Amino acid sequence: MAGRGPAPKASRSRVRDTPELTRLVAGGKAVGRPLPKGVLGVGKDGVLVDWHPMTKQWWEHWRRSPQAARMLSDPDWDFLLDTALMHHAMWRNQRWEFASEIRLRVAKFGATPEDRMRLKAEIESPEEAPAGRTAAGVSSLAERRGRLLKAV
């Protein structure tokens, strides 16, 4: 059975059940690593195989996304690189068997609005961002703890 059921609603019937959203600020700066060269090996002509143009574009979109600010460790980028290999194979061969796996993998990073609701994350433009946020756009632990203690 595919899927995980309907997406959670933005507000709940009880105030205490309404989740605290992590706010991600859309900055537009590229973070993380560039798409590595040489990963795809050497072609029949002895030249390094280059990434498919759609995969290059896809990777750059992820590097510039607000979600990239949360991808702080090398394993996060390694996981996305494995996904990029599937994305490249899918576009290069025009075979779509990897599409469902790619969809599941990018959902873990919050690719769609529904995925972000499941992750309790919200994207806001830099103009909307409150002054007390960190550079990555994620509230500090002390700030969150203070808000939770006020609610009690």
How would you explain this protein's 3D organization?
By secondary structure, this protein is mainly alpha-helical. The chain has a domain at about 50-150. Helix content is about 40%, strand content about 5%. It contains five helices and two strands; from the N terminus they run βααααβα. The chain has helices at about 55-65, 75-95, 100-105, 115-120, 140-150; strands at about 20-25, 120-125. The longest helix is centred in the middle third of the chain and has 20 residues, at about 75-95.
* Low-confidence parts: none
Helix/strand-derived class? mainly alpha
Q: Which percent range describes the beta-strand content?
A: 5-15%
Mean pLDDT: 81
In order across it, which strands form the biggest sheet? 1-2
Helix run count:
5
Integer-rounded radius of gyration:
19 Å
Largest sheet: 2 strands, parallel
* Fraction of helical residues: 25-40%
Based on CA inertia axes, which overall geometry fits?
elongated
State the distance separating the first and last CA atoms. Answer: 40 Å
Order of helices and strands: EHHHHEH
Q: How many β strands by DSSP?
A: 2
Describe what is shown at a glance.
With 152 residues, this protein is mainly alpha-helical. It has five helices and two strands, in the order βααααβα.
Give the secondary structure arrangement, pairings included:
Layout: E1 22-25, H1 53-64, H2 74-93, H3 99-107, H4 113-118, E2 121-124, H5 141-151
Parallel strand pairs: 1-2
Helix pairs in contact: 1-2, 2-3
